[in-house]
Design a protein that fits this description.
Helix content: 10-25%
Order of helices and strands: EHEHEHEHEHEEEEEHEE
Largest sheet: 9 strands, mixed
Strand content: 25-35%
Shape: globular
Distance between the termini: 65 Å
Oligomer: single chain
């Protein structure tokens, strides 16, 4: 019997999944491929004391920044503070716990979580504050830091196209952390721009297999904001 994975809106797709103190992975890089509809639904639910695993927290009024504004986030596991003044202000005031990671280390911790690898060794960060309190080892004359894998209760991601079985295609660099995050949690919910029937996607183009996706929301529209607009001056 086929399982219906399609939900009418973000609120319905997250029903029964949210609770205080949970850990959520959120795809996106800057404002690229941020699952904004799902983030807004989390904000509206009022759930609090969240641990969020994401490269960064968007900007003050978009992306995960909206959850920081409402003080629903207890801890961020991230790589970059970036353009979010609220993120920096809460951290410096001791109101937000942050676990900073080198960007490649963050990506590998998520991938390891999805692959069932509990920990790994990396040379990145050895001899720096990143390595404080962590196990270190020497292999072939080189020093490494042990990093633990990351897993979550819920993953929220944005995809360009999906079929109703949950097979996903991301558009170019909008792929970023999402494929790894889809494998590393108990439940993956995705918002998509285009929804098609099974068999309509080119099999070799599928990046995230539907087995990892449990719920899908089809967006009627999407506001693709630009974090830093850079343009050339017009020719005279």
């Amino acid at each position: 019997m086929a399982i219906n994975k399609i939900y009418p809106d973000a609120k319905t797709a997250l029903a029964g999944l949210l609770h205080d103190g949970m850990t959520i992975m959120s795809g996106g890089f800057g404002l690229c491929s941020v699952p904004q509809a799902l983030i807004d639904a989390i904000r509206d639910s009022g759930v609090k004391d969240l641990t969020i695993i994401s490269n960064n927290a968007g900007v003050d009024d978009a992306g995960l920044g909206v959850l920081l504004q409402t003080r629903q986030v207890k801890k961020m596991i991230s790589s970059y503070v970036g353009e979010n003044a609220t993120f920096a202000k809460q951290y410096l005031a001791g109101e937000l716990e942050i676990e900073f990671n080198p960007q490649g280390t963050l990506a590998e911790r998520i991938r390891a979580g999805g692959a069932g690898i509990p920990a790994f060794f990396t040379p990145t960060g050895y001899g720096t504050i990143i390595a404080e309190g962590k196990e270190t080892r020497e292999f072939d004359g080189k020093h490494y830091v042990m990093e633990r894998a990351l897993k979550a209760d819920l993953t929220i991601i944005h995809a360009w196209k999906a079929d109703t079985e949950g097979n996903l295609i991301y558009r170019k660099t909008a792929r970023n952390f999402s494929p790894m995050m889809a494998t590393a949690s108990k439940m993956t919910v995705v918002q998509v721009e285009h929804l098609v029937e099974p068999g309509e996607l080119e099999a070799d183009a599928i990046i995230t297999p539907g087995v990892f996706v449990k719920r899908i929301v089809k967006l009627d529209s999407i506001d693709k904001r630009i974090e830093q607009r850079t343009v050339r001056k017009r020719a005279a």
